[in-house]
Amino acid sequence: MSEDELLRWLRTKIDPCLLGDDAAVLPAGGPVAVTVDSQIAGVHFVPDLDPALLAPRLLAVNLSDLAAMGAEPAYAFLALSTAPGFDHRRFFRALIEACRHFNVLLAGGDLARSPATVATLTLIGRRPEAGRFLRRADAAPGHVLWLGGTIGESAAGQRLIARGARLRKGRVELPDDLVAGTLLQGAARRAVRRHLSPSPQLALGQWLGRQEAGAAMDVSDGLAKDLRRLCQESGVGAEILADELPLPDRFSDLCREIGADPLSLALGGGEDYVLLFTLPERIVPAEPGARKIGRITRSKRIVLRQDGERRDLPDLGWDHLRSSGAP
Amino acid sequence: MSEDELLRWLRTKIDPCLLGDDAAVLPAGGPVAVTVDSQIAGVHFVPDLDPALLAPRLLAVNLSDLAAMGAEPAYAFLALSTAPGFDHRRFFRALIEACRHFNVLLAGGDLARSPATVATLTLIGRRPEAGRFLRRADAAPGHVLWLGGTIGESAAGQRLIARGARLRKGRVELPDDLVAGTLLQGAARRAVRRHLSPSPQLALGQWLGRQEAGAAMDVSDGLAKDLRRLCQESGVGAEILADELPLPDRFSDLCREIGADPLSLALGGGEDYVLLFTLPERIVPAEPGARKIGRITRSKRIVLRQDGERRDLPDLGWDHLRSSGAP
Question: With contacts defined as CB-CB under 8 Å, which chain B residues touch A219?
Answer without folding.
Answer: none
